[in-house]
Amino acid sequence: KSLMPEVTQGYEAGFDLNLFNDRFTSNLTWFHTNTTNQTVNTGISSTTGFNGLRTNTGETMSEGLEVTAHVTPIRNKDWNVTVGGIYTMLNNDVLSISADLPRLALATYGNGSGSYAMAGYAFPVIMGYDYKRDAEKRVIVDATTGLPTKSDTISILGNAVAKHKLSFDGTIKYKNFNLSFLFEYRGGYQILNNIGSEMDWSGTGWRTAVYDRQRFVFPNSVIADPANPGKYIPNTNITVQNGNGNGGFWSDGINRDVTSNYVTSADFWKLRELSLSYNVPASFLAKSKFIKGC
After folding, report:
1. With 90 as the cut, is the pLDDT of residue 37 above it?
2. Is the pTM of this model over 0.85?
């Protein structure tokens, strides 16, 4: 089947506002786009003789807001100080895929966990195995061993694209010296640290030392209420019997095969740029014999 053209329709609106002889500058932009016949790569069964398929399917929507503002509180012969930032909010959602395909695998590992597109959710989402939980999202553990049980199917564990982006920048000039910086924040999304499973197996993962590698009560866990079938009560004293490595909980599949153990917040602040420069005066360069035209 031939690929069809991918079609995007979009709308954008915004305005600029500058005040006080450009000592205050700002910009606001809102955008909304819809894309149909989205061209994607997806995995297929190896029994077909192939391992991937490029196809058209579904509709996605992107909507966001970007606000920029800078202020120059000092501007004179020797000094020029400007600070400000940019804030971006992004919603990137899958509106539909197809009637025959409830979800679309984009990039996955051997156990099926990875990046997916699912109608009605952000694009893309992280899917994988979790523990079996009760209606209050508490982990159900065995009343004798204290061990949880891996879920039978994969489920959505997080959003893989930052919803909020914020940058804070500034420039400070004093005569011929120039100091500039740029900080960046991204938030509202998660990351799958797939190497965590191997780190737990080798004992180098930080999680393996949380309970000093001793027996422990699984956090936020419940056990079946013997007096009320189908109901659960908090687990306060039934411990995981082997909290060590080498055949214990941390190196066992009940820990390492559960994707949710390795999905964490991806929010961060970063110093992206810091520079200090000096503008050499033209009068100084004019005295040199190898530079002309200063």
Report:
1. no
2. no
